[in-house]
Amino acid sequence: MYINEKICKQFYSACLEPSFVIGEQTVAGPCPVMPDGRFMVCHWAGQAVLGVGIVLVVLSLLHLAFKNDGMKLGLDLAVIANAVLLLMIPNRLIHLCMKNHMQCHTVMEPFVLVMGVLMIAAALGDFFCRRRVVKKEAAHGS
Fold it and tell me: What is the pTM of this model?
């Protein structure tokens, strides 16, 4: 694997998950609090998405910290599993607001879907590249 590929993959790993959490908390979050102080149903979907997003940030930091390719393979699988969970939260595991024109339907749900798919694609790409390297190292006995 070339050094540019390694830097590129670590860049994606270090940028996708934190940008997801920051985006979900700033511009792509659920509907705001109602004037009487109550939360809409989508608030809880936003909280669940935030929790899974924080787990993904921790996994990406661990991915950057470890040098062992076998450990990174396991972390890639964990990112894939958590990103699939992330895709399932809005409007599948936790319902969103009833009206389709609300912010949770028009902003949060598409943002979560796009970022989740990007995280899965980046983790899959890293997984298969590392798996090939690990298999070559095992075949050569080093």
Answer: 0.89
